[in-house]
Amino acid sequence: MSTLSQTNPSTMAGRWLATLADFFTPRQLATRAQQLLLPLVGIVVFVGLWHVAAPQVQTSLGAFPGPADVVEQAGALWQEHQDQRARADKFVTMQEERNARILADNPDAEVKIRDYPGAPTFVDQIGTSLVTVLAGFALATLIAVPLGIVIGLNRHVNAAINPLIQVFKPVSPLAWLPLVTMVVSATYVSDDPMFEKAFLTSMFTVTLCSLWPTLINTSFGVAAVNPDLVNVSKVLRLSFWTHVRKVVLPSSIPMIFTGLRVSLGIAWMVLIAAEMLAQNPGLGKFVWDEFQNGSSESLSRIMVAVLAIGFIGFLLDRGMLLIQRKVAWNE
Q1: Distance of alpha carbon 36 from alpha carbon 24, whole angstroms
Q2: 59 in helix, strand or coil?
Q3: Is 112 left (phi over 0), alpha (psi -120 to 50) or beta?
Q4: Residue 290: CB atoms within 10 Å
Q5: In this structure, what is the dihedral angle of CA atoms 245, 131, 282, 124, given to the nearest 10 degrees?
Q6: What whole-number distance in Å separates Cα of residue 180 and Cα of residue 186?
Q7: 82-134, pLDDT tens digit by residue?
Q8: Among 262, 267, 265, 261, which residue's Cα sits nearest to residue 325?
Q9: Do residues 212 and 169 make contact, with C-beta atoms less than 8 angstroms apart?
Q10: Burial class of residue 121 in the structure, from the number of CB atoms within 10 Å of its CB (0-12 exposed, 13-18 middle, 19+ buried)
């Protein structure tokens, strides 16, 4: 009989309990409770102060919305999304039934399914904003990381490009947006465009404003590679690409990811302003439309969007932090 089958169940249970006791020590439990309790206390205090102060702030559209008003409008926006999806499904079903009748009479007829023409819902606009910011951030990363490596490896290139970085880094997205709009309108001309011009305008604006932290951190990380590693690379006569892949990138990964996290936060912040002016159907346009609408519910809906923007930004940062911990050697 095997050793495993002879093991006493009570002994196994005792081992599990001992392991749990080692993991959940009083100190660890106190630390975890503190980590959970303090943020919870902060949130409760904030909501309480918001609830008390909101009725005291009167605007042209009425009192500033409190937490209950915001929760109510969040539920209403979700219900609008559900109703819109139901109408869209019904619209597609009607077209499929019509096409089936047409094909029954004429098997060679050309039929198509048209998209539902209804306005995007709040949830749809969240999806549009996420796609736009990730596209702009990805493009910024593809530009900033290779260029940052070149700058960090060559002091002459660094001296040539650094003044340009310092000039363009602080430029506001509101300054870039008119220029990007004009360039996209002049160069992206197509009878059947793959992307909407508003999407491209917002994406390129995000790219132009978010690439600088990654570019700067990458160049600093590459320039700070341990000289001993560089000397070993020279002794082994590694090629340029091998040197970058085996020495430079592993050593500079922590700095690169620090820049990426900052860039992603800037990209998300810039996107909202870009969508307001470019009228890309995302969260920025939602906020602008509700502001222009001026109904009694507009302030509550804008506050829902503000909280959604903040929460999504937090999740994006946590996601990038998780990736950093999986990739960066110092984590």
Answers
A1: 15
A2: strand
A3: beta
A4: 21
A5: -150
A6: 10
A7: 999 999 999 889 988 888 888 888 887 888 888 888 888 999 999 999 999 99
A8: 261
A9: yes
A10: buried
